[in-house]
Design brief:
The complex is a heterodimer. Chain A has 29 helices and 37 strands. Chain A is an alpha/beta fold. An eight-stranded mixed sheet of chain A has the order 15-14-25-26-27-12-13-37, with helices on one face. A six-stranded mixed beta barrel of chain A has the order 31-35-32-34-33-36. In chain A, strands 20-17-16-21-22 form a five-stranded parallel sheet. In chain A, β18 and β19 form a beta hairpin. In chain A, α13 runs parallel beside α19. Chain A is globular and about 90 Å long. The radius of gyration of chain B is 11 Å and the shape is globular. In chain B, α1 crosses α2, α1 packs across α3 and α2 crosses α4. Classes of the chains: A alpha/beta, B mainly alpha. Chains A and B meet through α22 of A and α1, α2 and α3 of B.
């Protein structure tokens, strides 16, 4: 596909319903009222020259290039700031306009370097294009006067250059930072001739508040802000539209290439999830795909202490199949299992679960969603009838109140956070429920109305208290409940929730949240016309994760906030394909489409298609696999793209389980921590090589298109099918599209999906079938999927993990903007410059008590283990709570997390660990052992015979 | 206790957590809820190990788990 350049209409689309008819250059055009003359002209094929205008930003009217003549109007108004009027007659070209535009352009160019041929933006410069459009042939003013041509470049950011000598002070970068990203990091400093773009208070970009989302680079019409990769390699020549491989927002990107080399990733304007915006990870941190650490050949070894030996794919597949079959024969078919990955496509995940259910002949398949959003699946299915969020992202544009629980979107889901901030700047109210003061509590032009700074582990008490207020103060939407919800379950729940033991006052000493704050927040949420709940792993990763999901669903139902735009219960998924990997039947109790394995009718369908008998009993979940490995009944595992020896809790237990197995197969891009325990390593493909689909947090199915050939020769779905065949279950597909056809054939909510459909529709939100041929942006519109909404009792039960005098602090974990999960990808990019190590946030009071100074090495000890890391003193965390990230394998944050898990799903309780913090001057024992394990990662490059 | 079973302490803790969730539903419904949850989400070997461990001792086990287990013997 040649380089894609989306059309720029100059100003945003008007959403008004009222239409206006006008004439532009004699052409009649009808547009919504509120549309600018510039956009109306563009829509009828007349593009007016412009510099400061672009359709992702509000009109600014500063460059004076887009002047037009309007019958009956004085002068030559700027078309970007002039709204259309009924009967208006506009001329965009005349001798006067031509003269005016050329004169303005001459002034711009008189203070602009004339180095077009050697400029990085050559061929992609709006200033260059516009100079051509207005016919500028001569600059009369010369370059000897005062100018900006020798201003110093700012090269501090690793991903883009700032060259102020090329700046025309159009403010597009500043406005992009304000309007699109919502960070307000840029400004125009000085006045008149001295006006210049500045980051924060005139700091270098790298030292400023800039979050490197790339919106300013995207908006810049010249080479002032330019991707470093374009500066170094030149303009790309072709585009491939694909989907980001990081968080659950699932941004659509144009991969812009020279041959197979990615020059830059540009957010796609037509991307349903991101609509042209991006974050530092998706926009810039793709270099890991070609990092020197990539393993591209299969490798085997007899013992995990042996060096690796590279082998051919044929040998690797034969060897893996043989090892697995020996285990099956020796220990029984239940001794094998597999883990699918939310970093892989639906097609890849579907085939791994099929491999397990057919060739392994059991249901021992689980997915990394086990350790993040499995309670979402359970909780929303019980209450609403389907294991997915209710809204599309756009819905937040209509939310009057947002209840944000256990989620830090500006770091973990930055592109959606920008959308939230935009709505908040428009006046929507925000309630934050989080032990930590996340950025959204107070950030430029955004301040949460309520921050319910609860004690970790008391989510359910808080949501019950909120619901108690709604019910006892008469704030329930009775007609909605009567019409849409199950009466018996509501009456029972109403009795439960009305009990004084659920009042904010009764729970205050447990939650640490003032009762008056809870009452005020409940009233705000319940009285809003549209109130939406957004949540993250701070909800799910608790021993009561599933109860909390159901508690939020109860709250949404009782206030009538499900089934229309602007409302809903919305999980913000951690990884790009968490939703998809769950949809694809990765859970041990469910076949694709969330259908239980005990359902004979469903099994018949799959057995008929696959030609094998499917076990009617649930298989083992990830933690159960580890336990079974340690009791000797689970001996072999296929791990697809997950680093369980870093990401899972109670790492010593995980490692002991891996060591106890006879055959651990890891498929990944890199020799990750889990690979240290593997006997077979199968190289995987990055998102730039994959061909398939991802499904984001709004159930949007996006195409992932390969921009380069697989560096390891095979697509991952080919590896799964070849392994199944080698184990005796013939599996063959000619393409990933054929796999999606099978998914659609077997899964009612996907029956309308195919690669051809997605190529034409760009993306679609499931269910997509005969009932909803164009997909389902908002669910439960005419009724809940399960019929009537089910209220569930959610009694608050404190976690077993308690602080005591030995472990007096509570540790909670999370992630930061520049890094992604266990950091396997982002640590291999320049993003490491923002976050070189995991830090332990500790409150000044707790630090002083322990003699801890900022930056000091400290031991973090729980009853499970100990690690050493550096302290950061901050009042973001309240006294009694400490916080860290888990992005660095060297830290091993999960050495200290516990075996406790959610009652319904076994999702680990990452968010509550009782710990002690003491000063230290050496690595912990576990960290020293990790260093000792690394020599076993040696690779012998000679192919094995 | 037989050699090949999941750790008793983990099984009992997980089963007790399930029972605690269903407690407010009243005994009859709660027992059904616990049993159904174990059937739907626990692999047979886990249910088997739970039953085996209950035969050895019911110390520290929620009564709802004990009642639910009685209905599970035909499913392992």
């Amino acid at each position: 596909m040649p380089l894609i350049k989306e059309h720029d209409y100059g100003t945003p689309e008007s959403k008004a319903e009222h239409k206006v008819q006008l004439e532009i250059n004699g052409i009649s055009v009808t547009v919504p009222s509120g549309t600018s003359v510039m956009r109306a002209a563009s829509e009828c094929g007349v593009d007016i020259p412009k510099l400061c205008a672009t359709d992702s930003l509000d009109a600014f009217g500063s460059c004076r290039m887009c002047l037009v003549e309007i019958d009956g109007a004085k002068g030559t108004p700027s078309s970007c700031t002039t709204p259309v009027g009924d009967g208006m007659k506009v001329r965009t070209q005349s001798a006067r306009l031509e003269r005016l535009r050329r004169g303005v352009m001459e002034l711009y160019i008189s203070d602009h370097p004339l180095d077009c041929l050697t400029c990085a933006a050559n061929g992609d410069c709006e200033l260059q294009d516009t100079a051509g459009e207005v016919g500028l042939r001569d600059v009369r003013y010369g370059f000897t006067g005062e100018n900006h041509l020798s201003q110093e470049k700012d090269l501090s950011n690793p991903y883009f250059d700032f060259d102020p000598s090329k700046c025309i002070v159009c403010s597009r970068c500043v406005r992009a930072c304000d309007e699109i990203q919502g960070t307000f990091a840029l400004t125009i400093e000085g006045r008149g001739f001295n006006s210049k773009v500045a980051a924060s208070a005139g700091e270098a970009f790298m030292d400023s508040e800039c979050v490197s989302c790339g919106a300013c680079v995207q908006a810049c019409p010249t080479a002032t802000l330019m991707e470093r990769s374009v500066v170094e390699h030149g303009m790309p020549t072709r585009s491939v539209i694909t989907t980001c491989a990081y968080c659950g927002v699932g941004c659509s990107f144009k991969a812009e290439l020279q041959g197979e080399d990615v020059v830059r990733m540009v957010p796609h304007k037509d991307g349903g999830a991101n609509e042209g915006h991006s974050c530092v990870k998706g926009r810039f941190a793709f270099g890991y795909a070609t990092h020197k650490d990539r393993i591209t050949n299969p490798m085997i070894r007899e013992q995990i202490t042996d060096p690796w030996k590279e082998v051919s794919w044929d040998e690797a597949i034969t060897h893996t199949a043989a090892r697995f079959k020996i285990i099956q024969e020796k220990y029984g078919r239940g001794a094998l299992g597999g883990i699918t990955s939310s970093r892989c496509t639906n097609e890849e995940v579907f085939l791994v679960q099929k491999l397990v259910r057919t060739a392994f002949a059991n249901n021992n398949v689980d997915t990394c969603a086990r350790v993040c959003h499995s309670p979402t699946g359970y909780g929303l299915k019980q209450t609403f009838g389907t294991s997915a969020g209710t809204q599309d992202f756009k819905s937040v544009d209509h939310a009057d109140v947002m209840l944000l629980i256990g989620s830090n979107p500006t770091d973990a889901h930055p592109v959606f956070a920008s959308r939230m901030k935009r709505r908040l700047r428009e006046g929507a109210k925000l309630i934050v429920v989080d032990p930590r003061r996340i950025d959204l509590v107070e950030t430029p032009h955004v301040r949460a109305t309520h921050h319910l700074q609860l004690k970790p582990g008391t989510n359910v008490a808080v949501v019950n208290a909120l619901a108690h207020v709604v019910v006892t103060e008469g704030l329930a939407d009775s007609s909605y409940v009567a019409e849409r919800c199950d009466e018996d379950s509501f009456e029972r729940w109403k009795t439960f929730i009305s009990d004084p033991s659920n009042s904010p006052e009764a729970l205050e000493n447990k939650t640490s949240v003032p009762a008056s704050e809870i009452r005020a927040a409940a009233r705000l949420y319940a009285n809003a016309d549209t109130a939406a709940i957004y949540y993250g792993l701070g909800v799910t990763e608790h021993s009561q994760g599933s109860s909390m999901v159901m508690g939020m669903a109860n709250l949404a139902m009782v206030t009538g906030n499900v089934g229309r735009v602007g409302v809903g219960v919305n999980p913000l998924r951690g990884q790009n394909n968490v939703q998809g990997s769950c949809d694809m039947g990765s859970f041990p109790h469910e076949l694709p489409g969330y259908r239980h394995v005990s359902d004979a009718g469903v099994r018949d369908l799959f057995e008929g298609d696959w030609g094998v008998k499917i076990d009617s009993e649930p298989g083992l979940r990830i933690p159960n696999m580890f336990a079974a490995a340690l009791d000797g009944s689970f001996k072999g595992i296929f791990v697809q793209g997950e680093d369980i020896a870093q990401s899972d809790p109670d790492l010593k237990h995980v490692m002991a389980a891996l060591e106890a197995m006879e055959c651990v197969v890891v498929q990944d891009l890199f020799l990750n921590e889990t690979a240290a325990f593997a006997h077979i390593f199968l190289p995987g493909t990055s998102f730039l090589e994959k061909d398939g689909t991802f499904i984001n947090a709004e159930r949007r199915i996006n195409r992932v298109r390969p921009v380069m050939k697989p560096k390891c020769e095979l697509q991952e779905w080919e590896v799964a099918s070849r392994l199944a065949t080698a184990m005796g279950y013939p599996m063959h597909y000619n393409s990933a599209a054929e796999i999606m056809d099978e998914i659609a054939r077997l899964t009612p909510t996907f029956s309308g999906v195919s690669f051809d459909y997605l190529d034409q529709a760009r993306s679609v939100q499931w269910p997509c079938n005969e009932t909803a041929p164009e997909g389902t942006p908002i669910m439960h519109v005419d009724g809940f999927v399960r019929g009537k909404g089910q209220f569930m009792i959610t009694q608050y039960i404190p976690t077993e993990e308690r602080a005591n005098r030995y472990f007096p602090l509570i540790l909670t974990t999370g992630r930061i903007l520049s890094q992604y999960n266990v950091g396997t990808q982002t640590r291999r990019t320049e993003n490491i410059r923002w976050h070189g190590e995991d830090l332990l946030e500790i409150h000044p009071v707790d630090a002083e008590l322990r003699g801890v100074t900022d930056g000091a090495l400290v031991s973090l000890t729980s009853r499970k283990g100990q690690v050493t890391l550096r302290a950061e003193i901050t009042d973001r965390v309240p006294p009694g709570v400490v916080y860290t990230t888990f992005h660095h394998a060297t830290t091993g944050a999960n050495v200290v997390t516990t075996e406790l898990s959610d009652w319904a799903t076994n999702c680990p309780e990452y968010k509550v660990t009782a710990v002690q913090v003491t000063l230290s001057n050496h690595p912990a024992e576990w960290q020293a052992q990790r260093i000792e394990r690394r020599p076993a990662m040696t690779i012998i490059s000679e192919p094995a015979e | 206790m037989k050699e090949n079973n999941l750790e008793r302490v983990d099984l009992i803790r997980m089963a007790n957590q399930i029972a605690q969730y269903f407690e407010p539903y009243g005994e009859e419904e709660a027992v059904k809820g616990v049993a159904n949850h174990l059937r739907m989400f626990w692999a047979p070997r886990m249910r088997r190990d739970l039953l085996a461990t209950l035969k050895e001792s019911i110390e520290g086990v929620n009564p709802l788990v004990i009642s639910a287990a009685e209905t599970l013997s035909d499913t392992v």
